[in-house]
Amino acid sequence: MTHASQMKIAATYMRGGTSKGVFFRLNDLPEVAQTPGAARDALLLRVIGSRILMASIPTVWAAPHPAPAR
Questions:
Q1: d(CA 22, CA 1)
Q2: Three-class DSSP labels, the chain
Q3: Name one GO molecular function term (predicted).
């Protein structure tokens, strides 16, 4: 079995209860993975150790403007 070479990407691993996740800042991802597409999908699947394209991988980013006051 061949393995892809390792790469270093700044990330935060958080867990609470039975949930867990790896969080990245967009600017910390390799340039090819900073836009949606096959390269980003492949990287995120590699991080969670899955080859299943239907794995739960949310993509979250900051809102372009502050939330309105309530």
A1: 26
A2: CCCCCCCCCCCEEEEECCEEEEECCHHHCCHHHCCCCHHHHHHHHHHHCCCCCCCCCCCCCCCCCCCCCC
A3: isomerase activity
Q: How far is CA 41 from the centre of its chain?
A: 9
Q: Which residues of 49-68 are buried (b: 16+ CB within 10 A; e: fewer)?
A: eeeeeeeeeeeeeeeeeeee
pTM for the model: 0.63
Which tokens belong to 40? 């980003």
How far from chain centre, in Å, is Cα 32? 13
Task: Please compute the mean of the pLDDT values over residues 20-44 and round it to a whole number.
Answer: 90
Task: Break the chain into its structural domains and give their ranges.
Answer: 11-53
Return the top range by mean pLDDT from 4-8, 11-15, 44-48: 11-15
